[in-house]
Write a structure and sequence with these properties.
The chain is mainly alpha-helical and 58 residues long. It has helices spanning 6-26, 28-56. The N and C termini lie far apart (48 Å).
């Protein structure tokens, strides 16, 4: 129960890759903006975690 077959996983991976490529090709500026925003969120999250531990141990 809850286990996907390897065939279904492969189809999902292919569909995701095709969609990503489609958006990269048809909307490169918006795709770059999205990647930039996601990387910014990850950086902000990492900085928040570092700040938390610095504060915790100081």
């Amino acid at each position: 129960m809850g286990v996907m077959s390897s065939g279904v996983k492969k189809v999902i991976v292919v569909v995701v890759v095709v969609l990503v490529l489609f958006f990269l090709i048809t909307q490169p500026t918006q795709s770059a903006d999205l990647v930039h925003r996601v990387l910014g969120w990850l950086r902000d999250g990492a900085e928040a975690i570092v700040t938390f531990f610095k504060t915790l141990f100081s």
